[in-house]
Amino acid sequence: MDKKMSVVEHLGELRYRLLFSLTAFLIGALLVYLNMDNVIRWLLAPLGGKTLHFTGPADGFFITIQIAVVGGIMLGLPVFVYQVLAFILPGCTPKERRVIFSSIPPAIILFFLGVLFGKQILFPFVLHFFIGIGEAYLNPMLLGSKYFSFLVLLTLAMGLLFQIPLVMVALSRLGVIKSCKLRATRMYGYISIFMAMGIIIPSPDLLTLAGVCLPVILLYESSIWFIYLMEKVKAKKEKINYA
Question: Where are the beta strands (DSSP E) in the chain?
């Protein structure tokens, strides 16, 4: 049985974990800042040689700080997730603890895969699409602040979107959803994915949209079958134990 802690002890533990998370963030931000030239070159690759501009004397400085902060959050994310879960797990049931602990590694991996997919595949397409429309009648002057803000929002959105399979599996292990229901309503899931991606990528080309949606759809479909196999294994174990 877990030892009960007083309010003061809880606050002390919370402060400790926040300081640990802050330290991980600062170390990550420092690493990104020290390698800023390489990071900037990697982030500017989708521009294809186009130049970014800034309008204020301090804009360049604040952009590098913004990149360092986002990079620090990314690099410190595993530590932050662990500290949060370590703080809340004592109040969870043993089953909930097993589900949460087993979900941490795939959650982090899927998040970074989503961010990488957004940066390397989705963002260049969206960027060229919008610039292509504007260049038909205007000369683009891309501001660095808007470019990096758009890049961060899009890639973080994809990182969160790639969490859908993990959420589905976790809910299944907690008994909230069943594979039979997911299989029966998978078409609604596909439509929801197309609608979400259609909002992010306002492309008139359905083949291009389908190609971008394909990785998310594959993750969604593989999650359904993974849940189905988990249910089969669980049913088989229960049958053996009952016999």
Answer: 52-53, 142-143
Which whole-number Å values give the CA distances from 14 to 21, 88, 101, 180, 219, in the listed order?
11, 10, 19, 41, 35
In a domain, 1, yes or no: no
| Whole-structure pTM value | 0.74
Q: Which two tokens stand for residue 36?
A: 């800023």
Q: Is residue 153 part of a domain?
A: yes
* Residue range of the domain that includes 188: 7-242
Q: Which phi-psi region, left, alpha or beta, contains residue 20 (left: φ > 0; alpha: ψ -120 to 50)?
A: alpha
DSSP string, 102-150: HHHHHHHHHHHHHHHHIIIIIHHHHHHHHHHHHTTTS---EEHHHHHHH
How confident is the prediction along the chain (243 residues), in pLDDT tens digits per residue?
A: 455 666 666 677 778 888 988 999 999 999 999 999 999 999 998 888 788 888 888 888 889 999 999 999 989 988 888 888 777 777 777 777 777 777 788 888 888 988 998 888 888 888 887 787 777 777 778 888 889 888 888 888 888 888 888 888 888 877 788 888 888 888 888 888 888 777 766 655 676 677 777 888 888 888 888 888 888 887 777 777 655
Domain assignment present for residue 2? The answer is no
Tell whether 148 is covered by a domain. yes
**How many folded domains does the chain comprise?**
1
